[in-house]
């Protein structure tokens, strides 16, 4: 028997702190007469994180920056199909801090009262009571725990392995000039909306062509001035892994969302630093085997500031779909 494909949806729990209390944003949908989290179905070729940021902006009228992933939900629709909803924590975007990331996003439709006719900021207890579906309390409880544990206010350090490149044995020029393939260019373009969803405003990359070309679509879309670091190249890393480690530590300590683009042989050093600054549960799920990341793949590390320094409190691997 052939089953209908799962309906994939994405959304976010938008949060803020007022007078020391955690508040969240609920929306009311007149079509269903329910109070829920802003969310919606993926568009063709759209990554889950991109869909989450877009849907929240469409339903609330305000752009957001995604934070830590939250537990998702799966249930049957009235038509008997399986629907899977993926959630993130999210904060409202701030100008000018998030201006670069917002510039890299596609325009969204203005809110429609046919879709959402009411919105409300509520405390956690009030929100739990207002939610129509009890299952929607699951991501809310996770959000509240993260806030209580100091793991909710985060910034990202996104690690990107450059897009697919021309094989070494098929390239007769200098190694630093070896380019990415058409697939690599497609992977580079697909990363743009994902990086924008997480608010990336700082770009650090190896100077070698395949890394520079991978990050270039985001640099252009966001209007960012990239920092090309020679120590992130394969050759320089081999001479001094400690300099790569120092670059990663700087990004962890900086509160600005950032992306670092480098090469497969450099990834063990990068991941080792992330692991040293991670909660044990996070360190255990970081990529541990070669190739660590596939070409064009992203590792999003969510970093919280603590009394002991930066701490990676969550990590997620994302492969942006190609159009």
Short description:
This protein has 323 residues and is an alpha/beta fold. The protein has helices at residues 48-60, 99-103, 124-130, 137-148, 182-197, 209-222, 234-239, 241-253, 267-276, 280-283; strands spanning 7-18, 21-29, 34-36, 39-41, 64-76, 82-92, 118-123, 154-161, 202-205, 227-228, 258-262, 298-306, 309-318. The protein has 2 domains: 7-148, Nucleoside Triphosphate Pyrophosphohydrolase (Alpha-Beta Complex); 154-318, Rossmann fold (3-Layer(aba) Sandwich), CATH 3.40.50.1240.
Number of helices: 10
Fraction of residues in β-strands = 25-35%
Amino- and carboxy-terminal Cα gap:
29 Å
CATH class of the largest domain: Alpha Beta
- Please tell me how large the radius of gyration is: 20 Å
The succession of helices and strands, N to C, reads: EEEEHEEHEHHEHEHEHHEHHEE
How confident overall, as mean pLDDT?
95
Structural domain tally: 2
Shape: globular
- Pick out the low-confidence regions: none
Enter the CATH topology name of the largest domain.
Rossmann fold
What's the main sheet like? 7 strands, mixed
Number of strands: 13
Helix share, percent: 25-40%
Category from helices, strands and their pairing: alpha/beta
Q: CATH architecture of the largest domain, please? A: 3-Layer(aba) Sandwich
CATH superfamily of the largest domain: Phosphoglycerate mutase-like
GO molecular function, one term: hydrolase activity
Protein name: NUDIX hydrolase
InterPro entries: His_Pase_superF_clade-1, His_PPase_superfam, NUDIX_hydrolase-like_dom_sf, NUDIX_hydrolase_CS, NUDIX_hydrolase_dom, Nudix_hydrolase_domain
Keywords: Hydrolase
